[in-house]
Design brief:
mainly beta; Immunoglobulin-like; 3 domains; 5-stranded mixed sheet; 5-stranded antiparallel sheet; 26 strands
């Protein structure tokens, strides 16, 4: 009796690719594509990135995340100007039979070129590297719209943000301070309508071992600090939300333990600094939802 031969049939033409970023692209901003293979059949999706300087020590990495069944998000953050070539492979076959090429600029192109490419351009100007929790993030937005407003979200949670127009009426600055790890989505609106086809994406990393706690708004927060001895110490604490100092108290539990108490009224990232006299002895951050 012969053994049946299994044949996997797939249709590479059924793969859809949607750009999730804006043109033109400058260094240190996210390039992202949403890829759906549900109409292509069974197979494996791979992504390969060819950078302008493959020999650079600071090479650019491409990441692929499955966000739903057979739906993927492909992302990379270019760190050098030049042409980047993205190869998407499905069952080792090149999707669309060509690479997806992106020209990356070191600076924003001139406004006439920008106007011919996009209705709006977003560029992250702070921080220079990938943002981490607690960093001040500033985006520069260039558009001909007379008024815009913005929303920032991560994992379905909206992040407080502020948008303001600069002296140049075409340029706006959007500022926020992330307190969640993951992909942050920036939505821009004019008269209630979106002015970009899809949200601009920013990845936020953790804070690499710094003290990070969490709590809930409108509920008492208590943080216990162990110390060698407080008999001859002048311990005090300062709790900040942005630049606003939040009322707090210190309870001495025993000679080796104190407790800092405060009630947060708003969600955000709180900074807690502990001093012995004028000398800082402890710093921490706390996320409140």
């Amino acid at each position: 009796m012969s053994t049946p031969i299994e044949i996997t049939v797939y249709d590479i033409q059924g793969i859809s690719i949607i750009a999730e970023h804006n043109e033109p692209v400058v260094v240190r901003t996210t390039v992202a594509y949403k890829v759906n293979t549900s109409q292509a059949g069974q197979g494996q999706l791979k992504a390969e990135l060819i950078s302008p300087l493959q020999t650079s020590m600071n090479s650019c990495q491409c990441h692929i995340h499955e966000i739903n069944n057979q739906e993927y998000l492909i992302q990379y953050i270019p760190n050098e100007p030049g042409r980047y070539q993205l190869r998407l492979l499905f069952n080792n076959q090149l999707v669309q039979e060509k690479t997806i090429d992106t020209n990356v600029y070191s600076l924003l192109p001139s406004l006439p070129l920008l106007s011919s490419l996009s209705l709006v351009h977003i560029e992250k100007i702070l921080p220079y590297n990938i943002p981490r929790i607690g960093d001040d993030v500033c985006l520069e937005i260039i558009t001909k719209k007379s008024s815009i407003h913005a929303k920032v979200s991560c994992n379905g949670i909206f992040i407080p943000c502020q948008i303001e127009q600069t002296k140049d009426t075409h340029i706006w600055h959007l500022k926020f301070r992330p307190y969640l790890i993951g992909t942050h989505k920036i939505y821009l609106f004019h008269n209630g309508l979106s002015i970009i086809n899809s949200p601009y994406l920013i990845q936020v990393k953790d804070i690499n071992g710094k003290n990070l706690l969490s709590g809930i708004t409108n509920r008492p927060c208590g943080i216990e600090i162990h110390t060698k001895s407080i008999s001859n110490s002048q311990i005090r604490a300062v709790v900040l939300l942005d630049t606003i100092q939040i009322p707090s108290t210190i309870t001495i539990i025993n000679d080796n333990l104190i407790r800092i108490n405060f009630i947060p009224q708003e969600p955000g990232l709180y900074f807690i600094n502990i001093y012995n006299g004028d000398q800082t002895i402890k710093g921490m951050k706390i996320i409140l939802f």
